[in-house]
Structure formats: structure tokens, C-alpha cells
Amino acid sequence: MQEMARKKVVLRTEGLQSDSTCSSSDVRLRVRYGECQRNIALEVGGYALDGCREFMASTVEGSQGTEGALICAPCDCHRSFHQRMVEPEAA
Asked: What is the DSSP letter of 57?
């Protein structure tokens, strides 16, 4: 499968406690949700993706605790169908 260049969206930042002995006590991670992996042809026994390249919450800013914040606006599926990537954040 061919890799797409633009497929990442930053949704939230998590702070984790570092287990190393260096002076930095916080390691910040960026959680990104990329391409939708939902198989839309499952009912007919095939395999096809809908082409949604990035997760965008269907609610307006400030509504992060709601159920609508977990639904993708372009493809109308749950965030769990999108590829999750966790990366250390550059300081």
C-alpha cells in the first residue's frame, strides 16, 4: 500500500512522567489520528477504504468532552477507525 504524505492531525497532547534519571521530569507526547481504516465494502465481502485522510472532529472548538468530538466530520465514523500515532513532542 502506498504511503500518503499528508495524513496527520494533532488532537491532544498528553504529559507522561519520565522514568529516566535526567533532569527533565515531563515527556510530552503528541497523539495524532490519520487515515481512516474502516472497511466500507465489508457487507459485500470486499475491501475498500473511503479515502478519508485525516480525523477532524465534527463538533466546534470547546466541545471536547462530548460524543460528537469522537465522530469524524468527513467520513462520519468513530475516531477509533483512524490510525493512531503517538510521537514525542519537540520541546
From this structure: B
Residue 52 contacts residue 36 (beta carbons within 8 Å): yes
Q: Which of 11, 14, 8 is nearest to 64 (CA)?
A: 11
On whether the CB atoms of residues 12 and 33 are closer than 8 A, the answer is no
d(CA 85, CA 36): 13
**Placement of cell 485522510 in the chain:** 53
- Rounded to two decimals, the pTM is 0.62
Q: How far is CA 74 from CA 39, 50, 59, 85, in A?
A: 15, 10, 12, 19
Coil vs helix vs strand at 24 = coil
Phi/psi at 78 (nearest 5 deg)? -70, 150
26-39 pLDDT, tens digit per residue, is: 788 999 899 999 99
d(CA 86, CA 73): 22
Cα separation of 18 and 35, whole Å?
30
